Amino acid sequence: MDYSQAFEISASGMTVEKLRVDVTAVNIANMHSTAAADGTMFRPLRVVSRPAGATFASQFQGGAQLALRGAQVLGIEELAVEPKTVYEPGNPNANDKGYVTLPGVDHVAEMVNLITALRAYEASDFCRRRPRVRSRARANPRARRSRSSAPGSASSSPA
């Protein structure tokens, strides 16, 4: 495998994870929205992805050679979750009993999705960058100290 193919695989993974972050941001932004004027309610979204070119037939077409092609987005789907009802009598959208119907967005699950997507994005970005060689002085801060400035020496004592 040449480097350009490795970069393409990494870029496809970064594209999927960026979309996952964007969709999670939309879910979090709409978690306190109420029903629209026509009565429709926001439904949480999820990104559906898979390895690119990984169909059952394509696994046999390559023979014994493993074909690495990255990741692809199949689509964004709405989750079938029930809306939640919250008691907020001061809300203008509350019913006669003081309850407001909000989308069924699970804030904890969205934060887990966000952190997972960010870590995967960072891992793909790390693979794309060339590792930097650190100087010996930066890698070991004790290497910068000279013997004259070592604790207990004559030059380090107060005059």
Helix content range of the residues, please? Answer: 25-40%
If you average the pLDDT, what whole number results? 79
Low-confidence stretches: none
Order of H and E elements: HEHEEEHH
Class by SSE composition: alpha+beta
**Biggest β-sheet strands, sense, barrel:** 2 strands, antiparallel
Strand line-up across the major sheet: 1-2
Shape: elongated
Strand content: 5-15%
DSSP summary, beta strand count? 4
Radius of gyration: 27 Å
What's the tally of helices?
4
N- to C-terminal distance: 65 Å
Question: What characteristics describe this protein?
Answer:
single chain, 4 helices, two-stranded antiparallel ribbon, 4 strands
In short:
By secondary structure, this protein is of the alpha+beta class. The protein has a domain at 3-79 and 106-130.
Structure description:
Helix content is 37%, strand content 14%. By secondary structure, it is an alpha+beta fold. It has a domain at 3-79 and 106-130. The strands form two sheets. Strands 1-2 form a two-stranded antiparallel sheet. The longest helix has 27 residues, at 3-29. It is elongated, with a radius of gyration of 27 Å. The model has no long low-confidence stretch (mean pLDDT 79).
